[in-house]
Amino acid sequence: MAWSGWDRFVGVRADPTAPPEVEEIGMGRRPVKLKDRKPRAEVQPRKATRREKLRVNNLMVLLEDDQFEKCIKRITFLEFLAGETIFDADDEGGEVYFVVEGKVRAVDDIQEGQDLVYNDIEEGGWFGELAAIDERSRSATISALTNVIVATLPREVFLNMILECRAVALKVLGEFTGFIRAGNRRTAKVSSFTGVQRVYMELLQLAEPDPRGDGSWHIPTTVKHKDLAAEASTSLEIVARALSQLLKKGLIKREGGSFRILDREQIQQMITQN
Is a pLDDT exceeding 80 seen at residue 73? Predict the structure, then answer.
């Protein structure tokens, strides 16, 4: 093997035909143990900034760059811990909120111990637009389900955004039609089924086929009576009564903080019974 003057000076020359576990030193070769080699440092992906996450919000992404730049100048970022209230129903205020990280829930307090859940809003969603448009008080209480970061936009900037961007206006109108449809379905459910039956319906909706394949269904998440009551538009007392009935009949059984559905068909029949 020929060596150049530079090769002799540095004393090392890589042989392209040598296997990866062998390196040349001077005029000879020595094996290199793979465990002696330092692993390459993993390149951690860069975390998106708040501004970047806001830019891909389901509403903000419809804006042209110059329109977004005008909005971002008026944006304020706020943080809330899980369980904190962002605003209450009947509060005054016209700012619109964009969820940058986390999840929030919109509810209305029907009576003591009974909340009506409107919807959960995740990263990419927004809320507060009703009060911004009609200049009335807040129509629902918004609470953080997880630790959240929201971006607030003043009412006048939001309204200009709607007027200047047709795609944004259509998107907001689409959300409004969704509210109306969901309200119609909820009204039909409340008028057609008892509170106990609605609790049964929510349990079946939460259930998934057991991965063990034994024909049973299970609810993979913790079931809280308060959440069931809110989703079923009923009281905590009714939730407790419904669960008690199913447990006594052997149709469900407790598993930690959740339940296993043992006879799904029987529960479905109980829902349709008058």
Answer: yes
What is the dotted CATH code of the domain comprising 50-191? 2.60.120.10
Q: What is the DSSP string of the chain?
A: ----HHHHHH-----TTS-TTEEEETTEEEE--GGGSPPPPP-PPPPPPHHHHHHTSTTGGGS-HHHHHHHHTT-EEEEE-TT-EEE-TT-----EEEEEESEEEEEEEEETTEEEEEEEEETT-EE-HHHHHH----SSEEEESS-EEEEEE-HHHHHHHHHH-HHHHHHHHHHHHHHHHHHHHHHHHHHHS-HHHHHHHHHHHH-EE-TT-SS-EE--SPPPHHHHHHHHTS-HHHHHHHHHHHHHTTSEEEETTEEEES-HHHHHHHHH--
pTM to 2 decimal places: 0.67
Where exactly does CATH 2.60.120.10 map onto the chain? 50-191
In this prediction, residue 185 carries a pLDDT of: 84
Q: pLDDT tens digits, residue range 107-135?
A: 887 666 567 788 899 999 999 999 999 99
